[in-house]
Amino acid sequence: MTFDLHSVPYGSQTINFELRRAPRKTMAIHVHPDMRVEVVAPQKADLNKVYQKVRKRAKWVRTQQIFFEQFHPKTPPRQYISGENHRYLGRQLRLKIKRDVICGVKVSAGHILVSSHYPNNTKLTRELVTDWLKARAHQKFKERFAICVQKFPKPEKFTPHSIIIRQLNNRWGSMTGAKRLVLNTRLIHASVACIDYVIIHELCHMQYPNHSPKFWKLLTAMLPDWHKRKNQLEKYLL
Predict the structure, then answer these.
(1) pLDDT band at 72 (very low <50, low <70, confident <90, very high)
(2) For residues 149 and 201, is the Cβ–Cβ distance under 8 A?
(3) Coil, strand, or helix at residue 219?
(4) Do 160 and 210 lie in a common domain?
(5) How far apart are CA 66 and CA 61, in angstroms?
(6) Both 126 and 156 in a single domain?
(7) Same domain, 220 and 156
(8) What is the C-alpha separation between 125 and 104, in angstroms, rounded?
(9) What are the beta bridge partners of residue 28?
(10) Structural domain contains residue 80
(11) Within this chain, do residues 174 and 147 fall inside the same structural domain, yes or no?
């Protein structure tokens, strides 16, 4: 799915957005944590209609961008040295690296404890921590899915064909047209409450593919405090 860059005036400002065409009937506008605006429109939607939609939602777009702006600049790149803070399941843990004959990573007494042949080799430490986080993401997300899907009245109707866990650039999760649940590995940094929010949000898309009023009604019924969890999630992952 390719995209083109467009813009519309909004008062004294300009709203720049990416326009993506997709096989769908309705138009959707997304504001991502990096403040980038994405419009997904039907394949044959008239460009003037797209501009009209963006202008109509301009106030909402700017409100979302201002919300995300408060969390910038983003956390600087990790150095993977002892004493550095890393977030895991919503907790701030300090990295502690020690020399050992066996390489490994575990959580211990408020630390992410890294055992390494070469404790001063930051590249090796990065690889060990990254691999450990990916493994924990696969295990934890599947555990939380098993719990979340049981919250629905008929779990079998909200069970996707598969669960895919991988790095995503601009979203926490998605439900594909083929009914596959995709989760961002970075969610392992967020709290369990936030992980559950993303899973339940995407499972609601099993019944309602778009963000229609019926979708939000179902999400609210399943998770009344979803607004709070969503706000927490944005803070964790910026």
Answers:
(1) low
(2) no
(3) helix
(4) yes
(5) 9
(6) no
(7) yes
(8) 10
(9) 40
(10) no
(11) yes
Helix axes 58-69, 47-56, angle to 10 degrees: 60
Query: What pLDDT digit, counting tens, does each position of 111-150 carry?
Result: 999 999 999 999 999 999 999 999 999 999 999 999 999 9
Looking only at the bridges linking them, the beta strands covering 37-42 and 13-22 are parallel
Query: Could you tell me how many residues make up the chain?
Result: 238
Give the whole-angstrom CA distance, residue 199 versus residue 188: 13
User: Are the beta carbons of 133 and 185 closer than 8 angstroms?
Assistant: yes
pTM for the model stands at 0.70
Task: Say if residue 116 is in the same domain as residue 179.
Answer: no
Specify the number of domains making up the chain.
3
Residues 106 and 179 in one domain: no
**What is the rounded distance in angstroms from the CA atom of residue 161 to the CA atom of residue 148?**
16
DSSP 35: S
The CATH number of the domain where 177 resides is what?
3.30.2010.10
120 and 42 in one domain? Answer: no
Q: Examine residue 73 and say whether the peptide bond preceding it is cis (omega within 30 degrees of 0).
A: yes
Q: Give the C-alpha separation, 176 to 202, whole Å.
A: 9
- Residue 126 structural domain: 85-132
Residue 4 CB neighbours (<10 A): 11
